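Batch job 17 of 40 flagged for manual review because the log was empty.
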Amino acid sequence: MVPDVNVFDSHTCLRAAASIEKNLIEFSSTLSESEFHAPPRGGGWSIGFCIEHLVLTGQSLLPLWDQALREAPHLGARKPSSFRYRWWQRKLLQSIADPIKLPHRSRTPLVPCSRHSIEETVGRFLAMHQEFLLRINSSQGLDLQRPSVRAPFLPWFRVGVGLSFDLAFAHERRHIEQARLIRRQLALSSGAYSAHTV
């Protein structure tokens, strides 16, 4: 299910991060190394490469966020840093999170090419996420509707810092769901093969 994100709020972002980490840890704990690295029957990324792509994407975003946060004006103690998204921003968040919608080709630096074990890949993701959370925490009291950030997975599009945080989480949900779909496909393919050979 794709969450309906209508408002940017840093506390909601932190809850989203915790939920994504929990889902990834629980999902990865059910996988064997062979399942983790097996490509889908029709071709494409393995489960491991889906997660490694998220690591590469997150790492590429960190310096962009650092620069944007340095440039973001302070709102003052009495002004909230939350704000409501416009309709097209909500639609964009929903589309990015859905693995069926809005397919796009990743830029070369974000295409995974190295295999790591489940433990190492998940560990790399969690370490990147901790850096992500540091940026969210340091954004308190800043105007996150500007300046703009160019998202690596949508290089032609610039968005406010707050929206870029939620887009990054939507992108993570997209590929974790993609990994679940690959797992189901592998299970169906294995079952069909077993039935055929009995």
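Reviewer: the log was empty due to a logging misconfiguration, but the result itself is present. The CA atoms of residues 56 and 110 lie 5 Å apart. Unflagging and moving on to job 18.
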